[in-house]
Specification:
Keywords: Acyltransferase, Plasmid, Transferase
Protein name: Beta-ketoacyl-[acyl-carrier-protein] synthase III C-terminal domain-containing protein
Number of helices: 9
CATH architecture of the largest domain: 3-Layer(aba) Sandwich
Radius of gyration: 19 Å
Number of strands: 13
Distance between the termini: 27 Å
Order of helices and strands: EEHEHEHEHEHEEEEHEHHHEE
InterPro entries: ACP_syn_III_C, Thiolase-like
Organism: Tritonibacter mobilis F1926
CATH topology of the largest domain: Peroxisomal Thiolase, Chain A, domain 1
Strand order of the largest sheet: 5-4-6-9-1-10-13-12-11
Helix content: 25-40%
Shape: globular
CATH class of the largest domain: Alpha Beta
CATH superfamily of the largest domain: Thiolase/Chalcone synthase
Number of domains: 2
GO molecular function: acyltransferase activity
Length: about 325
């Protein structure tokens, strides 16, 4: 069984208030009111002066500094991102297109690669993949994060606003604070086409299909896991917005009180980091006890719904999640 052994989450130190983003993101007064009063957004971490490599390196460096004894067992390292490319076009080698913080691992013989086609759900999908790839005694590193560098990237119209974060997750078959009981992935490939061309309505029909995709995936995942909604202690979802999750919970037969949505207001939707961020916030809030089962869930455009059932163990948790939003 795969285990989450340790996790580092970092954010840019710079914070923005929603009300100050109206001009930069071309948001009307009514849109600001919607994102604030109805969707629950307040502040975001975002710093256009911090390069992606620096953000990702802070997450990886903090994780490996706590686990120097695990470095020799590392066999795979994957950067999960939503945009198809996160570096300048024209860089030829696969390592050059990977985050700089992974280059050292590649030089040590670690298999370094990137994964993107599940978009914001890619990080969760990697749990299932690494469960199959890792041999006994091997460890894997999942690195998640990217920059909200342009208004077209930061805003999904009438849906969500992106913040910035990075997560580094160390996984393996050795005991850890969280056991990955199982994973479940579903694709809705009719929404695959997104060339980036102006005017392309790649989300056409997605708003009406989203609720069914999310709720049916949750129901079918629980059946696959041989669990009921009542057997879950928490659902740790992606931070798209609060109202959509209340609708999904009702349609899927979940209790809204099981949703952990406390990070939406202070971080926004941080691409694929959200479920891991909510897991850590739950640990900081003291709501996770040995034996609890929690469901991590995310949907990525394209579209992919991915979830992972975790069981909290009695192995001591890694460092607590600090109140300033940076876990070393």
């Amino acid at each position: 069984m795969l285990n989450l052994i340790d996790l580092s989450v970092v954010f840019p130190a710079r914070q923005e208030k929603l009300v100050d983003l109206a001009e930069d993101l071309s948001l009307s007064r009514n849109q600001i009111r919607m994102f604030d009063r109805f969707f629950g957004f307040e502040t975001f971490h975002c710093d256009h002066n911090e390069p992606l490599d620096a953000l990702l390196s802070r997450a990886t460096d903090g994780l490996m500094a706590r686990n120097p004894h695990h470095r020799a067992a590392l066999s795979h390292a994957v950067h999960c991102h939503t945009l198809l490319t996160t570096h300048v076009f024209g860089q030829s080698s696969a390592v050059a297109q990977s985050p700089a913080c992974l280059a050292g691992f590649a030089s040590e013989g670690v298999e370094v690669f990137s994964a993107t086609m599940n978009h914001c759900a890619t990080g969760l999908s990697m749990l299932g993949l690494l469960d199959h790839l890792l041999d006994p005694g091997d460890l894997g590193l999942i690195l998640i994060g990217e920059k909200a560098f342009h208004p077209a990237i930061r805003v999904i119209e009438n849906t969500t606003i992106m913040g910035e974060a990075a997560a580094a997750v160390l996984v393996g078959h050795a005991p850890g604070p969280f056991e990955v009981v199982d994973t479940f992935v579903r694709h809705a490939p009719q929404f695959w086409k997104n060339t980036g061309l102006r005017g392309e309505n790649y989300l056409e029909g997605f708003d009406s299909a989203y609720l069914h995709l999310a709720s049916s995936t949750l129901r079918d995942a629980l059946a696959h896991f041989d669990r009921t909604a009542q057997s879950l202690r928490w659902i740790m979802p992606h931070n798209v917005n609060a109202p959509s999750w209340y609708q999904v919970a009702e349609d899927a037969g979940l209790d809204k009180a099981q949703l952990r949505l406390s990070t939406i207001g202070c971080y926004g939707h941080c691409f694929g980091v959200d479920p891991f961020l909510n897991l850590w916030r739950g640990a900081q809030d003291g709501v996770l006890q040995p034996g609890d089962e929690v469901l991590l869930f995310s949907i990525g455009l394209g579209a992919t719904a991915s979830c992972a059932l975790l069981r909290v163990t009695d192995v001591p948790l890694p460092l607590p999640f600090p109140t300033n939003g940076v876990s070393g």
